[in-house]
Design brief:
With 265 residues, the protein is mainly α. 79% of the residues lie in helices and 0% in strands. The protein is built from 12 helices and no strands. It is elongated, with a radius of gyration of 29 Å. The termini are far apart.
Length: 265
């Protein structure tokens, strides 16, 4: 008996799903845009974002010159965002704040347009075009809306993505170090610090500069040893003035002793 009830329930649900799908297909083909508009909002509120997108996409060009154009475009953007389709969401958010600059949702759309690029930002090893785009958009948002409640979050996101770019630069420089090309490693690491002075990876980068300078000096021909050990000493003082006590302190002090010994000789 219980199994029969379950089978009947499943059959009812399937029929309801088929009926709902048929109604939606009819609605897509309909020219009743008022009904489409109402149903699109209903689907959005019910979190049926795929159906909402289908209707809002149809309504967007049709209602462009009407008083509903703003609502259609904004909720189209929101529906894509909820679907995690950040490429299309970003495009439509940008369209919204460029078209309706004085609208009460314009600032939110501008922030979310930048945020979509943040969500598209990949891990440091990959191309960082979206990361750079997000940073630029967030900086522009902060400039335009310095007192907006989202400014603190924008600063936090910028710092996170700047650290990602710094990590990519650090990893690229680290490749030279791993290949024993210490001269190139020093140049690449110093360039990374110039580009990202506030990075949270600053300590690691400065330590690797010191270590690369030392290994470069240790593997040098005699004529260049003194100059390069002196550069190592400079790097040591630069590091210890900023980080007098760090997890690298033992190794840093060992480098200092070896450098002093070699300079005396």
């Amino acid at each position: 008996m219980f199994q029969k009830i379950i089978k009947v329930s499943i059959a009812v649900l399937l029929l309801a799903g088929i009926a709902s799908s048929c109604q939606y297909d009819k609605l897509l083909k309909s020219s009743n845009y008022k009904k489409k508009y109402g149903k699109a909002l209903e689907y959005y509120q019910a979190k049926e974002y795929t159906k909402a997108v289908g209707l809002f996409e149809q309504l967007n060009p049709v209602l462009k010159a009407t008083d509903r154009a703003d609502t259609v475009l904004y909720y189209l953007s929101e529906s894509y965002f909820e679907q995690e389709n950040y490429i299309l969401a970003e495009h439509h958010y940008q369209q919204f704040y460029e078209t309706f600059g004085n609208h009460r949702w314009a600032d939110e759309a501008e922030f979310k347009s930048a945020y979509c690029n943040y969500m598209l930002s990949p891990r440091p090893a990959l191309d960082q075009s979206y990361t750079k785009k997000a940073i630029n958009k967030l900086n522009l948002f902060i400039t335009r809306h310095p007192n907006h409640p989202k400014v603190a979050e924008a600063h936090k996101l910028i710092q996170e993505m700047t650290d990602k770019l710094a990590m990519k630069a650090y990893n690229s420089a680290r490749l030279y170090y791993d290949m024993d090309d210490y001269k190139a490693a020093v140049v690449a690491l110093e360039n990374a610090l110039k580009r990202f002075p506030g990075t949270t990876h600053r300590k690691e980068i400065k330590f690797l500069i010191l270590k690369s300078q030392f290994l470069l000096a240790s593997n040098s021909v005699k004529s260049k040893e003194q100059e390069r050990y002196q550069s190592t000493l400079d790097a040591y003082y630069t590091y210890t003035s900023e980080y007098p006590d760090s997890e690298y302190s033992n190794e840093v002090q060992q480098i200092y002793k070896e450098t002093q010994r070699n300079l005396k000789n």
